Amino acid sequence: MTRSAIVLAAGHGTRMKSQTHKVLHPVCGKPMIHHILDTLEEVGVDQIVVVVGQQRERVAAAVAGRADIAVQAAQLGTGDAVKAALSTLRSDTDTVVVLYGDAPLIRPQTIASMFEARETSDAAAVVLTASVPDPTGLGRVFLDGEGGVLRIVEEKDASPEERQHRLINTGIYAYRRDALKSSVGRLKADNAQREYYLTDTLAILRSGGERVIARTVEDPLEIASVNDRAQLAQVEQICRSNIARRWMREGVTIVDPNHTYIDADVVLAPDVTLLPGTLLSGRTIVREGAVIGPHTRLVDTRVEAGAVVQNAVAVESEIGEQAQVGPFAYLRPGSRVGKRVKIGDFVEVKNSRIGDDTKVSHLAYVGDADVGSHVNVGCGVITVNYDGERKHRTVIGDNSFVGSNVNLIAPLAIGEGAYITAGSTVTDDVGDDAFVIARVPQTTKPNYVRAWKARKQNQNLVKGGDDSGH
């Protein structure tokens, strides 16, 4: 039995007031329409057709490889959009679910239940309904005693008594393919907007003696859709809450879910602890026992078991087991921090590998470097990696010591067990076990300061006399 889905994504969404198509706006780290595709793929739908219209190239590119494309040349309503998709449907399709690219919260269980209801009942169509506390502006659905749809009454046509009814039409349907095709073909644009409404197919089917039934969504928040930025923020909040609840049930401690932000593709292990102000983005992975936060942002970063990352930012980086990063550290793309490494306060690392048990405790910049194991990088150390035209690498061997306020002028190689004294500027390669002093010798003049100050004062008096004209 072949199952297909039509996702309506033709309208640009003018109320978003954005140059970005509505369905491409992100919710919890990825475009809304990707949430829909993920849901349909989890259900195991055999074919997905996305109907595009405005900005069709951008939307088509966003779903490339995951869906077939149908084009609605002019936006003439939901019925016309579905009609544009019919020729793209597989010929062996039995059941078609129609849903919207701007409603990213729908759950796989809900879609699966619609397919099952349509197939087990052999109804022509299934309407997804919801019981909401405030149905204002929405079409009311009235059922018979067996769950069949008697009628759908739009707000403008409802009597005062009918407006008290709280079961509403979500606009999401499952159809028998032939029933969808025949009813869409009979749609008329006899309304003020001169558009073809998919909702009208239900009345067409019922008038032809076909059965239309309803299934009620368990959580009305699932059907929340986005038409403007305020609704986008509301949907984001619901999605974020759902994600946090799911991870807490999987054994993750989230101290303050209201101030923790986890993207949809993040992966967390049991016994991870997330402190307030944590933002986990992209495809970040955090392993067992790691503690993240407070006020930490990780983007496409892998954190191994037992690591602690606090008050820090890491982008496209790897943090090893039992490592400590922060507070106030920045790992830029390409950083690989080994086991039990310490990256301390106000340390920046970029495109570098830091070996196991190495310490970069504070106020340092390590860029384009390969730092070995058991290395001490002192306060104020800088790898001078850029000559104004090209980037160069620094290599520091295992068990080396780099003292405070050292400049390492790349390209540079420092051997194993080397010792670089504080304040040195190192320009030449250093061999194994070498001791380096690369600084200007100190000059000390005894009993000098008072005489020096007196000379300066006399010089200032002379200058002052010249300026006065005497």
Word description of this protein:
Keywords: Acyltransferase, Cell shape, Cell wall biogenesis/degradation, Cytoplasm, Magnesium, Metal-binding, Multifunctional enzyme, Nucleotidyltransferase, Peptidoglycan synthesis, Repeat, Transferase. It catalyses: N-acetyl-alpha-D-glucosamine 1-phosphate + UTP + H(+) = UDP-N-acetyl-alpha-D-glucosamine + diphosphate; alpha-D-glucosamine 1-phosphate + acetyl-CoA = N-acetyl-alpha-D-glucosamine 1-phosphate + CoA + H(+). GO terms for molecular function: glucosamine-1-phosphate N-acetyltransferase activity; magnesium ion binding; UDP-N-acetylglucosamine diphosphorylase activity. β8 and β9 form a beta hairpin. The chain has 470 residues and is an alpha/beta fold. α1 crosses α4 and α5 crosses α6. Helix content is 21%, strand content 30%. The strands form six sheets. It has a 16-stranded parallel sheet that branches. A nine-stranded parallel sheet has the order 14-17-20-23-26-28-30-33-36, with no helix packed on it. It has a seven-stranded mixed sheet with strand order 5-4-1-6-10-7-11, with helices on both faces. The radius of gyration is 33 Å and the shape is elongated. The chain has eight helices and 39 strands. The chain folds into two domains: 222 residues, Spore Coat Polysaccharide Biosynthesis Protein SpsA, Chain A, CATH 3.90.550; 185 residues, Hexapeptide repeat proteins (UDP N-Acetylglucosamine Acyltransferase, domain 1, 3 Solenoid), CATH 2.160.10.
